[in-house]
Write a structure and sequence with these properties.
By secondary structure, the chain is α/β, with parallel strands linked by helices. The chain has two domains: 34-157 and 325-380, Rossmann fold; 158-321, 3-Layer(aba) Sandwich (Rossmann fold). Helix content is 48%, strand content 15%. The protein has 15 helices and twelve strands. The chain has helices spanning 2-24, 39-43, 56-73, 90-101, 118-128, 143-146, 158-171, 183-186, 189-205, 222-241, 255-265, 281-285, 297-310, 324-340, 350-361, and strands spanning 48-53, 77-81, 106-112, 133-137, 152-156, 176-181, 208-213, 245-249, 318-320, 368-369, 376-379, 383-385. The strands form three sheets. It has a seven-stranded mixed β-sheet with strand order 2-1-3-4-5-11-10, with helices on both faces. A three-stranded parallel β-sheet has the order 7-6-8, sandwiched between helices. A two-stranded antiparallel ribbon has the order 9-12. Helix 3 (56-73) packs parallel to helix 14 (324-340), helix 7 packs parallel to helix 9 (189-205) and helix 10 (222-241) runs parallel beside helix 11.
């Protein structure tokens, strides 16, 4: 009898504890909205999200954004990179993405930038994981090609940005606008169209427009060859056209030498290829970011402004207030969370995406669609001149 009573009491305690647990559970209607995804929410769901970015040497801010997401969501975030020489090493991109996808718990992949090779990698993954959600930022392949592979695609509205960059250069006092690129980038339809729009607007505004070929950083000369060319050529352009010359480049590795030489010559730098206060400006201007200020956009904007004032370059250097590619990493991860937790209307939910992006940007973001694709979203940021 005593043994039977002991078993009965034990069972009663177990059921009692289970009932207490159920009473403390949050009701369904208290599920956080789209822009309030948290580590606690993610930890309760059995899935992982992969993030693929460039390496620290090529695109540090995107990799750091992935680390920020890992710090927020913990082991749910798996990070890998594509190679610096991604044009020649597309098999490595495929291999790295396939390695992530081999984890059965991985349910979504966010890739920023979605460089050439992304479509082939996604195609290979879908052969074995057709359920995988793909969120892509800043694609480097033809828009009509990559549109067939990503579930959500985000890109700066490059077509509108061409004219906007020319206008910003004019507003900053430019008389000449130099456009640095190379044949591979000019083979991308969207980048070539942006160049054409920039040229047309520059000529409409009365600006002299100069196109200059630079070495491709994925060629044998590599990133050092591209940077050395910029360091040597920019002063030559200023000597020829005067310091009211604005400079724009289409590749990330160009940005630091462009900014350094702009400051040295007193020329004009309207905006980076990938607009962001973090993109090349701190390193080019010698700004150290303390650990406690990491991710503090207001702090970095203030520091850049002070450096420009010290160099008597007020009004000669600009960017956008929002780090676009960092934003795409964060938005991509948080959208994947919403989708995997059932808080989106299918794989493509423009309202949820806009809500998350506006929250991350700290203000209302307007999205437009590229062509007839309802899953390919374009946006512009807000310019700032220091």
């Amino acid at each position: 009898m005593k043994k039977g009573m002991a078993i009965l009491l034990t069972l009663m305690m177990v059921f009692s504890l289970a009932a207490c647990g159920n009473n403390n559970a949050a009701p369904a209607e208290e599920t956080p909205p789209a822009n309030e995804a948290s580590a606690e929410v993610v930890e309760s769901v059995d899935y992982k999200i992969g993030v693929m970015t460039g390496t620290v040497s090529q695109n540090e801010e995107e990799y750091r954004a992935a680390e920020n997401m890992q710090a927020l969501f913990g082991e749910k975030i798996i990070i890998t990179t594509y190679p610096d020489r991604f044009m020649q090493e597309q098999e490595t991109t495929i291999t790295n993405m396939m390695a992530m996808a081999s984890d059965p718990d991985l349910k979504a992949i966010v890739m920023v930038q979605a460089v050439p090779g992304a479509a082939a990698a996604i195609s290979r993954v879908r052969e074995v994981r057709p359920d995988m959600l793909f969120v892509l930022g800043t694609p480097g392949e033809d828009p009509d090609v990559i549109a067939d592979y990503g579930d959500i695609i985000m890109q700066i509205d490059e077509l509108a940005r061409g004219a906007a960059t020319a206008q910003q250069a004019k507003d900053m006092g430019a008389e000449t606008l130099v456009h640095y690129s190379f044949p591979r980038h000019m083979s991308y339809e969207m980048l070539a169209s942006r160049r054409d729009n920039m040229k047309a607007e520059a000529e409409r505004l009365g600006l002299r427009f100069i196109e200059e070929d630079a070495p491709d950083p994925t060629s044998d000369a590599g990133v050092p060859g591209t940077q050395q060319f910029i360091m040597e050529d920019l002063p030559r352009k200023v000597a020829e056209y005067g310091n009211d010359t604005a400079f724009f480049g289409t590749n990330c590795s160009m940005m630091e030498p462009l900014i350094r030489q702009t400051m040295e010559t007193g020329a004009i730098f309207p905006v980076q290829c990938c607009p962001s206060p973090y993109h090349a400006l701190p390193s080019a201007l010698g700004i150290g970011v303390p650990e406690e200020k990491s991710g503090d956009v207001d702090y970095i904007l203030e520091q850049i402004g002070e450096k420009c004032e010290e160099a008597e370059m007020t009004g000669r250097v600009g960017t956008w207030t929002v780090p676009i590619n960092m934003m795409y990493v964060e938005v991509g991860v948080k959208y994947a969370v919403e989708f995997l937790e059932g808080r989106t209307d299918g794989r493509v939910d423009a309202e949820v995406l806009k809500s998350i992006m506006s929250d991350v940007a700290g203000g209302e973001v307007e999205l437009t669609n590229y062509g007839d694709y309802d899953h390919f979203f374009l946006n512009l940021g807000a310019p700032i001149v220091f």
